[in-house]
User: Fold this.
Amino acid sequence: MNDEQLLRYSRHLLLEDIDVAGQEKLLAAHVLVIGAGGLGCAAAPYLAAAGVGQITLLDHDKVELTNLQRQIMHSLHSVGRSKVESGKQFLQQVNPTIKINTIEAKATLALLDTLLPVVDVILDCTDNFATRQLINASCVKHQTPLISGSALRFDGQISVFDPRNLASPCYACVFSPDEQFEEISCASMGIFAPLVGIIGSMQAAQALQILIGFGEPLIGRMLLWNARNTQIDEIRITRNPDCSVCGK
Assistant:
């Protein structure tokens, strides 16, 4: 690290669990954030500020006025623009020393097959069940750690699925791809603005833990956050040996 980096990241360097070696891991890391909406808007700025050397934003959507209630990377001037380009502009202001890649597209198996071999961690910040299953299957295939978050109304959840860990379940172990879920969106049900900030920030924190290798990430555990009651519950989740994705 140069002198500017030593000063910029000095508060990380004071933490024994991170120090210089951990910060250098972050600077060398590449994180893929899928979804530049509420969760991605909270997670990506903390990844950038913390010094993750390369961040790729993947989203096909445009910024709408209704997004501004919670999607803090976007502003009134961003309405109508691509979310990934708006996000890139914001992140470059947070930390101009890192690399921000943008892909304005939907996540597909072919695209993920191209991206996953060159990234270290994936943050699933999407909002629909089918895409989450697709991302999970790709992470299992490429042995890439997945940090999954979701938020709706006043309820959020987060967990880490790490296929490199033989004891870790995958997303499909908990939510079977064969089950039929009714897709519920923020547009129809609403969402408490700070909730995405809470869950997205937790996703960023989990990513830093995975990249540096300290503490106990949420592998085999899922946190449930109830913003109405300000309550956090933790449930244990286990690998399903008959899982159609990771149990083969």
In short: The chain has a mean pLDDT of 95. The radius of gyration is 17 Å. The chain has one domain: 3-236. Residues 193-212 form the longest helix (20 residues).
